[in-house]
Design a protein that fits this description.
heterodimer; A: mainly alpha; ABC transporter involved in vitamin B12 uptake, BtuC; 72% helix; globular; disordered N terminus; B: mainly alpha; two-stranded antiparallel sheet
């Protein structure tokens, strides 16, 4: 007997158009993403505007300032891309699992343990040749991320234990263990907050445009995104992922490898999350410290849902949230604006990404139009 | 020493019990409430502000209760009427509420994180004459605040209501099968909204217990993950009031132990903080495996 998911993914993935030339497919996908993501983003901006107005700020001026802080100059674009990098990884991780209808919220934990592992290995890479010094910590980080997901994955695939709560709990377990491990074993002397030593210089992922923080981690993330897109579309297991995700009972009846899919989905999300944490440690912060992940795992969930698991949508969403994070970090230096505004915007987007708006007439018109376009 | 640990474990478990009972009711109606943390923080803020403005703890507690009912109802509407996934809405709701409160503290009150309020009245402690000096028993029941006694009353009352009252039966029916219940003419969405409002209100009272109980101030991080511990507790207690409350007392005991050991030294607070979560994974795994083998036996 094979198990059917107890809790389905929170949004349906978009049907992927096939057969068209790639460029056209990309355009169609982009249009779809804009349509799905547009409303949540607009609602979030409205909620933010209400909060801003209530505290006597001009929303349009603030949003304009945020936009220039995110994209105004090359160095600000660099900062935005640096902030995009970690959430690109976590978004891919979430989308990977959600595609199979597996609803993990444990990417945060994988990211954290991956980061700690990479930082600890990276700090001991002093004499190693440059490529090895980078690959070993990343490998360790990836494995650590997978390890975090292992227990929920086995419980889910073998005994149908609901993965939502187990993965959520593992986030807290990992947070506690990481704090304990840093304090007991890896604490760097003379550091006020609990942080590990900086990684060796040859273990750092080099910056792409040196004064800026954007590093090779972004390239790894982009390659991973392409890999995700191709794998979902071209591989057998990728097909089974989509089948199990959209019709679990039918897939069981058809003899698809449901158990393998569930196990791979959860483990894969953990591995990707771990790699993300490792890249973040080697590429940007160069060590592990308390507050290493600013809820990147949860931001990744919001992006994956907003994009409906579409690769292009993931990239666009990650840049959008990266821009918010980068702009939020600096905008408070110029105007007296609490950085919490960014949280309000992010959380609202997350909520409304899964809300279903019943506009029967509008959606009927949309359906009719796409019918006409694709006979 | 043992008296001190008992007393502090019970004090620490009051916010957990209130939030977890709310979560358990919501769970019985079929919704996993991830937003308990947000409701607790809302309750803590409103309780502190209103208690400070009026100089009356009861008014503060009521204000917290109502604020939590509003946030609980709002979150429930997003889940029931806009069909938002309960987990995502809950996570997002936590982020938004923490953002709004952090923003208002800085932009409205002009403080960064901690709000100290002049004239705030804390929850009174009810000393029971004659018992207060008896070892163990004194620590168990004397010197407790009204919310502690509310918990003591709520556990049996809620258990009875869930089991016997019309409301409880309909609530459980909705949770057991929404389609069957609505085909019988129950207003399942309204029932869920009601449960969401109660969950928010109770969790907010838990927040009041934090801000008006021991410390008498508000801090934006004062819930410190207690909403998630409460979630762990009602999973551990399988959403039944008494086991849920006992799980909270157990987790409160862990917390008291951790504070105690911190002062003594030797043990890591971080490790002890993970115990509730590990306990939940173990319980979920055991129940899952048992149910799985039971259904497999039925099939063969």
């Amino acid at each position: 007997m094979t198990s059917a998911p107890t809790q389905s993914a929170p949004v349906e993935p978009d049907p992927t158009p096939a057969g068209d030339p790639p460029l056209q497919r990309i355009l169609i996908a982009t249009g779809r993403v804009a349509r799905h993501a547009g409303l949540p983003v607009v609602i979030a901006l409205l909620v933010g505007a209400v909060v801003l107005l209530a505290t006597g700020n001009d929303p349009i001026a603030v949003y304009g300032r945020l936009a220039t802080e995110a994209f105004g100059t090359p160095s600000r674009i660099n900062a935005t891309l640096a902030a995009t990098t970690p959430i690109l990884f976590t978004a891919i991780a979430a989308a990977f699992a959600y595609r199979a209808g597996v609803f993990t919220v444990g990417v945060e934990g994988s990211f954290v343990l991956g980061g700690l592992t990479a930082a600890v290995i990276g700090a001991n890479m002093g004499g190693f040749p440059p490529v090895v010094a980078v690959i070993l910590p990343l490998l360790g980080a990836t494995l650590a991320g997978g390890l975090v997901a292992a227990v929920p994955a086995v419980l889910r695939a073998v005994w149908s234990v609901d993965e939502v709560v187990t993965t959520l709990m593992f986030n807290f377990i990992v947070a506690g263990l990481a704090g304990w491990a840093v304090q007991s074993f890896f604490q760097e002397r003379g550091q006020a907050n609990s942080a590990t030593a900086y990684v060796a210089e040859n273990a750092e992922l080099p910056a792409l445009a040196p004064p800026g923080q954007t590093s090779w981690a972004l390239i790894i993330g982009l390659l991973l995104l392409i890999g995700y897109a191709v794998w979902m579309r071209r591989s057998t297991l990728g097909f089974e992922f989509r089948a199990v995700g959209s019709a679990p009972r039918f897939s069981t009846a058809q003899g698809l490898r449901v158990r393998t899919v569930l196990l791979t989905a959860l483990l894969g999300a953990g591995l990707i999350g771990g790699l993300g944490g490792g890249s973040h440690a080697l590429g940007i912060v160069h060590r592990y410290s308390e507050g290493f992940s600013a809820s990147f795992g949860f931001t990744g969930i919001a992006i994956a849902l907003l994009a409906r698991f579409n690769p292009i949508g993931i990239l666009v969403g990650a840049i959008l949230f990266g821009a918010l994070n980068a702009a939020g970090a600096t905008v408070q230096l110029f105007i007296n604006l609490p950085v919490q505004l960014i949280d309000i915007l992010e959380g609202t987007v997350m909520i409304f990404a899964v809300a279903v708006f019943a506009f029967p007439r509008l959606s009927k018109r949309w359906a009719a139009r796409s019918e006409r376009r694709r006979p | 020493m043992i008296d001190a640990i008992i007393a502090s474990a019970l004090t620490l478990s009051v916010p957990l019990v209130l939030a977890a009972l709310g979560g358990a009711i919501h769970r019985r109606a079929g919704v996993v409430n991830i937003g308990l943390e947000a409701h607790m923080l809302t309750g803590a803020l409103f309780g502190a502000v209103v208690s400070g403005a009026t100089g009356n703890w009861a008014l503060g507690a009521l204000a917290g209760l109502f604020a939590g009912a509003v946030t609980g109802g709002l979150m429930s509407l997003l889940i029931t009427r806009l069909k938002g996934n309960e987990i995502i809405v809950g996570l997002g709701f936590n982020i938004v509420v923490f953002g709004v409160i952090g923003y208002v503290l800085r932009a409205g009150f002009g403080v960064s994180g901690t709000l100290q309020i002049e004239g705030l009245e804390r929850l009174p402690r009810l000393d029971i004459p004659g018992v207060a000096d008896v070892p163990v028993l004194g620590a168990l029941i004397s010197g407790k605040d009204p919310l502690f006694w509310l918990c003591i009353v709520l556990v049996p009352v809620l258990a009875w209501l869930l089991k016997n009252s019309r409301w409880g039966v309909r609530l459980r029916a909705t949770g057991a099968s929404e389609t069957a219940s609505s085909s019988l003419g129950l207003r399942t969405l309204d029932i869920r909204d009601g449960a969401g409002i109660i969950a928010g209100a109770l969790a907010a009272l838990g927040g009041v217990a934090l801000s008006l109980g021991t410390v008498g101030l508000f801090n934006e991080n004062m819930t410190a993950g207690r909403g998630y511990v409460a979630l762990a507790a009602f999973y551990f207690g399988r959403s039944r009031p008494l086991p849920t409350a006992l799980a909270c007392v157990l987790f409160g005991f862990f917390d008291a132990l951790q504070i105690r050991l911190q002062t003594v030294g030797g043990f890591s607070a971080d490790i002890i903080s993970t115990l509730p979560y590990i306990a939940v994974v173990v319980v979920l795994a055991l129940t899952g495996i048992r149910e799985y083998s039971r259904s497999a036996r039925k099939l063969s």
